[in-house]
Amino acid sequence: MRIDVPDDVLEKWQNIVDTMAKLIAAPASLIMRVVDNDIQVFVSSKTAGNPYRVGDRERLHQSGLYCETVIRSDHHLLVPNALEDDDWKNNPDIKLNMISYLGFPIRWPDRTPFGTICVLDNKTNAYSDLHENLLMQFRDVIEQHLQLIHMNVQLGIAKAEMEVLNHQLQILASTDSLTGTLNRRRFDEIFETEWRRAAREKTALSLLLIDVDHFKHINDDFGHLRGDDALKMVALVLRTMAARAGDVVARYGGEEFAVLLPNTSSEHAQQLAESIRRAIARTVLFKVEGGDITSTVCIGIASQVPSHAGDPHSMLQAADTALYRAKLSGRNRVEI
């Protein structure tokens, strides 16, 4: 059965591929869809140098295309340079000068293939772990959309629309509208729950408090809209890096974020915090005439095995104290 993707979802997918192309600095970012026996360009980034047009399609079976392998293997594919790879040097995308590829499978809720999400570059590109995590996060968002679409078909439009609306309202009530992370109220609720769970199961719980260094200068020098862009990018890095099931990312206030890490030791929390600090320092928050704008963060860490006699507020205070030490020690630091 052919299931249509609603226009409002297509708009979100267009934003996804445009964002991917921008963040990875690649000329082409695509969502491909299996249509009968063909593979079709379903959504294509609006980027300079992108040779792929929506509606372009090829026979899928034995096509030699990157996406055929992704769909057939149901696994991601990374080709840093097809010209240097005997398995890929003659694939059809070479004719379009697309020599590097990173793609992941997209599946319907019943695990049958919908298509792929991918980026392609006209130069050698090995892509980073951050790029791979980014694609996986966006792939998960798309599969969530497909699950809702499939639900609409199975349950009937009227009933499904009501359920989707209620779900969206719940999300809106718990989400920070600027960054897409959880808001402080919802974070505090989850923190209480995870504290009790960790105390019951006697497992480690870790908390990171993250503050953007000299954020006031960004607002003063470039304006609050650019400041908002910076916060969105920081949030995206945090959601990409803290991506395990159970990890919680929230905007805790202003330019401060919180990351809750269930079942995570102090050592592993420090390793993740350092990875986040380095990733944000390398991330372009936004572009202005004359260059790229970057920034750094301070991170305070608190880790413990909670007890029923304690409360999460003490852990929050410990993380806040560590964050304050990081600021006093020169910023762009992790403290515990």
From TrEMBL:
Pfam families: GAF (PF01590), GGDEF (PF00990). This is diguanylate cyclase. Its EC number is 2.7.7.65. InterPro entries: Diguanylate_Cyclase, GAF, GAF-like_dom_sf, GGDEF_dom, Nucleotide_cyclase, Rev_trsase/Diguanyl_cyclase. The lineage of its organism: Bacteria, Pseudomonadati, Pseudomonadota, Gammaproteobacteria, Lysobacterales. Gene3D superfamilies: 3.30.450.40, 3.30.70.270. Residues 203-336 form the GGDEF domain. It comes from Dyella caseinilytica. It comes from the Bacteria.
